[in-house]
Amino acid sequence: MRIRKNLARLALLAAASTAGAGLLATPSQAAVNSAVEIKVESGRTVLVYTGSDNANQLRLNKEAGGVVVVDDSVTLTPGAGCTTFVDSTQARCSAVTEIRFNLGAGNDRAAVQRTFNGEIRGGSGDDTFALSYADSGLSTLRVIGDAGARDHADYRGMGEAVNVTLGLGANDGRPAKNDADFVQVEDVTGTSFSDTLIGDLAANQIKGLGARDTMRGGAANDKIFANDGNTETQIDCDSGLGAPGTADTIVVDDRALDSRINCELTERAGVE
């Protein structure tokens, strides 16, 4: 009888040990990898990226011959047409003509360093799209914030001026290069050159970084940052799109030389 009780006790201990090991393994199982693969769709070679549930830090670059390099902050699982490059967080994919990226959950950041055709979506987090094309090609990229409350298009790394009209057609990007991007996010930051930045129906935050910008809000209560030490070309907190906001805010620097219209509130801040 005593032997039988001891055996039963050992069995219970083994089961508890197994359950404990399962609990300890949970965090590693929750660390989902990103994935990238090539798909051929209607004669187009599409690079498909599926982001993890982490806050991904992604860089997207392009080499000669349509080779695309994807650099992630988590392990990147390469599928068809892609191979691991340098380490497990990077992949090289060949003969790409179009991209289709979904960043997934988390507050992601995607740095797009070359011109592309295709689409990049943010997913459910508050995502940042750092757009800094280093080549002279034509960009026809759809940048969609998706479900995030405060998605952001950041052009501060671009080497020339941009025109951005949020959510209103494929007319965003570098006018000198005839870019035809479509950018639909809540917030936008311009370049150190003379940009045109126009909001949409959401409560936008619009920031000029230098030179003489044209900045306009849209519907809802927008916030325009003009504290860059320069006198802007135009500041209008309502662009005539939708019902105007009743508490639009302009942020000005100590010089406060900028004329503005339709801005109900004023804040002062240092030059940025």
UniProtKB/TrEMBL annotation:
Instruction: Tell me the leader sequence span.
Output: 1-21
**Is the DNA repair keyword given for this protein?**
no
* Keyword Signal annotated: yes
- A Pfam family annotated for this chain is HemolysinCabind
One GO molecular function term?
Answer: calcium ion binding
> Out of the domains of life, which is the source?
Bacteria
The record's annotation in InterPro entries points to: Hemolysn_Ca-bd, Serralysin-like_metalloprot_C
This protein's name: Hemolysin-type calcium-binding repeat-containing protein
Q: Which organism is it from?
A: Planobispora siamensis
Its taxonomic path starts at: Bacteria, Bacillati, Actinomycetota, Actinomycetes, Streptosporangiales
